[in-house]
Amino acid sequence: MQFIENRTFDEIRVGDTAQIVRTLKSEDIELFAAMSGEVNPAHVDAEFARSDVFHTVIAHGMWGGALISAVLGTELPGPGTIYLDQKLTFLGPVGIGDTVAVQVTVAAKDPARNALKLDCRCTNQNGEVVIEGQAEVIAPTEKVRRPRAVLPEAHLHERGARYRDLIAATHNLPSVRMAVVHPCDELSLAGALEASSQGMIVPVLVGSRAKIEVVAAEAGLSLDGIEIIDTPHSHAAAERAVALVREGKAEALMKGKLHTDELMAPVVDRDTGLRTERRMSHIFALDVPHYPKTLFITDAAINIFPDLDTKRDIVQNAIDLARALGNDRPKVAVLSAVETVYPKIPSTIEAAALCKMLDRGQITGGIIDGPLAFDNAVSKTAAEAKGIRSEVAGDADILVVPDLEAGNMIAKQLIYLAGAESSGIVLGARVPIVLTSRADGVMSRLASCAMAQLYTAHRALGVA
């Protein structure tokens, strides 16, 4: 165990010094900005910083001031110190990768108040002084020795950052004509209108005109120039939206305020629906804190207990989506409870069969490995501990779950316990279907629309 110990006023002599050394990382700047709210673009906007006076991102000035405080509070005098005054002069910038030595030196003692004046100096790796000044503190009079606090790990995650990248990828693509089914609540209507304003979709609102107009008025949303097809209720809206696709008047569907089965019933109708030779499946696209890329989970919403043939289509749909979003060779982990083929667990046998289907060309466009337990699929450390050598293990793009229950639990655990952002679409029908949850916010709906737009454009090129 490490300890932290102070130096009392009586132990300290004029000329005593203490020092710490730190190398500035981009994470330091981000953490300081998040803690302080100081988001001057000179510190957080690389493009702006290149045109600024120093031509690069620099640390906040008080990052150095905080390091001086750290020396005073942990080294000299240490625990029990009371900060009274600090005067600093900033003489030069500190950029990412610079190593700063922070030194304080006792300049004077005031026995009447147990006060100290300390000269403070920060120098970079070239010996250049970047900050100097003087601090005044009250030094402790009693000895303190305590276990050094173990600081929590800080992980930075910009919520929705991967979704913003996804949306940015659509900016030069043609808008998709999308039938929005029963958008009779603020979230679904606002999501559709925002997607329209960003050029991703041309919305056709299918539902009760009266209800849609009331929602728009209450939420302050403009319906100028937006086509509305009036229907008496949500069932009729779903049927009419499917008919629009069959008539060639819509290229995609988007779920509004209605149940999933209510929307999907006319979609899967054998005579008037949108079936293809491919089984339909839902694909969650999750932006998970601490996972380095978008994580796709399938199927967690459509197929309850899929057989092997259905799983083949589930895998292919997910691969096609990932490729449409720019991943030329997505890595697919077929999940089970264990990472070995075990006859008493059918999902392990199906996982092995899916791997062989890839070898035989029955599945194309990705890399598949399985069975893999969840930890082995997303953690290289866990995979290495089990001795698993695989391109997929620990680096999966797509998680294929054994059944809907398992997928639904995994996705919702990541959303509600790990803080993941959720979006998703259904593939395998004639057109992509944006199947959002009623709890999804506007960003999730935009991301789902972006996936539908990117997939439609990708398919138009004849590559999906």
Describe this structure in words.
- By secondary structure, this protein is an alpha/beta fold.
- Helix content is 35%, strand content 23%.
- Helix 5 (161-168) packs parallel to helix 15 (442-460) and helix 10 (308-324) packs across helix 15.
- The radius of gyration is 29 Å and the shape is elongated.
- The mean pLDDT is 94.
Q: What's the short story on this structure?
A:
The protein is of the alpha/beta class and 464 residues long. The protein is built from 15 helices and 18 strands.
Topology overview:
Layout: E1 3-5, E2 17-23, H1 26-36, H2 41-44, H3 46-51, H4 61-74, E3 82-90, E4 99-110, E5 115-123, E6 129-138, E7 145-147, H5 161-168, E8 176-181, H6 186-197, E9 201-207, H7 209-219, E10 227-230, H8 234-246, E11 252-255, H9 260-267, E12 281-287, E13 295-298, H10 308-324, E14 331-335, H11 346-359, E15 367-372, H12 374-378, H13 380-385, E16 398-400, H14 404-416, E17 421-427, E18 433-434, H15 442-460
Parallel strand pairs: 8-9, 8-11, 9-10, 11-18, 13-16, 14-15, 14-16
Antiparallel strand pairs: 1-7, 2-4, 3-6, 4-5, 5-6, 12-13, 12-17, 17-18
The CATH architecture term of the domain at 276-428 is 3-Layer(aba) Sandwich
Largest sheet: 11 strands, mixed
Could you give the distance between the termini? 58 Å
Rg measurement, Å: 29 Å
**Total number of β-strand segments?**
18
The CATH homologous superfamily of the domain at 276-428 is named Isopropylmalate Dehydrogenase
